[in-house]
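Reviewer comment 2.1 asked that we show a complete input and output for one of the modelled complexes. We chose the SN-glycerol-3-phosphate case, as it is the one discussed in the main text.
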Amino acid sequence: MKFFVDTADIADIKEMADTGLLDGVTTNPSLIAKSGRDFMEVTKEICDLVDGPVSAEVVALDHETMMKEAETLRKIADNVCIKVPLTIDGLKTCKKLTGDGTMVNVTLCFSANQALLAAKAGATFVSPFVGRHDDNGFDGMELIADIRRIYDNYDFGTEILVASIRNPVHVLQSARIGADVATMPPAVIKGLFKHVLTDKGIEGFIADWEKTGQTIPAS
Ligand code: G3P
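Response of the prediction step:
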C-alpha cells in the first residue's frame, strides 16, 4: 500500500519524506489556503521534495478552463498529478489528460458508480472520501470495498486512493480491503507508529541495558 501525505505544509512533508516511507502528496484548495502560501510556488517546492505523484487541484468548473489550468499546473514538474472533481466536466478533462499521458486524480468521489465512471475515464487515481462519507451517516469502508470489487471485476487499472482519512483504523481497514493508496494527515501517519507496548518495551530494555554498564563500540 502506498502512503501519501495530505497536506501542503512543507515542514510536515519534509518530516514525512525523511522517514523514507512517503510515496506521494495530495493537496486541495483548502489545504493550500491553510498553508498561506502561493499555490504555484508551494506546489513546485513539494514536487522537488518528493519523487512520487503530487496532486494539484484545478479550481475551474468547466472543461475548457480546467484544461487551461491543468496545462499550467502540469508544467510545474513531471510528478504533478492533476486533480479534478468528479463531475461531467471533470471526467471529460480526466479522459483528455490521461489520453495525453498526464496523471489524473479524480477527487470528491462518494459512490461506487462515480468510481466506475472515473475508471472508465482512465483516471490514474480515484479519491473516495471515507471520513466525510462516515460523517454523513454512510459507511466509508463499504464504499472502498465496493470500488475494490468493481475494479477487480473489470481489471481497471485506476488506483483506489483512500482520502479524508481521520484515524489509523481507516488505514487498517483500507489495507485489509486492498486499497492501493492511503492519503493521510501527518498526525495519522505518526499515529501508525505508536503503540503503548512498544514504548513500554523500549523503556524496559533501556533500563536493563544501563544496568550492564556496556556500550556498543563504534565500528
Ligand atoms: O484528500 C481529501 C481530504 O483532504 C479531505 O479530507 O478531512 O477535509 O474530509 P477532510
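The pocket of SN-glycerol-3-phosphate is lined by residues 6, 26, 28, 127, 129, 131-132, 163-164, 183 (CB under 6 Å). We note this here for comparison with the apo prediction described in Section 3.2.
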